[in-house]
Amino acid sequence: MDVSVRELRNHTGRVIAAIEAGTPVVLTVHGRPVADIVPRRTRAERRPTEDFLADLDELRHLARELGVTPRAEDYDLGLSTDDAFGT
Fold it and tell me: What are the backbone angles phi and psi of residue 28, rounded to the nearest 5°?
């Protein structure tokens, strides 16, 4: 969705509602794109624990079926979850 600076000023509520609904917005000045306004991602820590553990369990079963044995160093990125996800 492209939105001019004037439209943003005159219809801020509508633009914010679109962003909250998941629509990225390209802010334009005289028809030239100058900025991207994107919906904020949900942080990984806010994911329900039950869902996360169920996914890990499924991955464990798939790895076992495929004969994959992960190495410990594969898991050490030296980053926090915020660093890894850019949040």
Answer: -120, 150
Q: Say if 10 falls within a structural domain.
A: yes
Given a contact cutoff of 8 angstroms between Cβ atoms, the answer to whether 33 and 52 are in contact is no
CA distance 87 to 77: 16
Q: What's the CA gap between 22 and 30, in Å, rounded?
A: 25
Decide if 84 is inside a domain.
Answer: no
Considering its fold, how many domains does the chain have in total? 1
- What is the tens place of the pLDDT at every residue in 21-62? 889 999 999 999 999 999 987 555 567 888 888 998 998 899
Residue type, 18: A
Determine, yes or no, domain membership for 21: yes
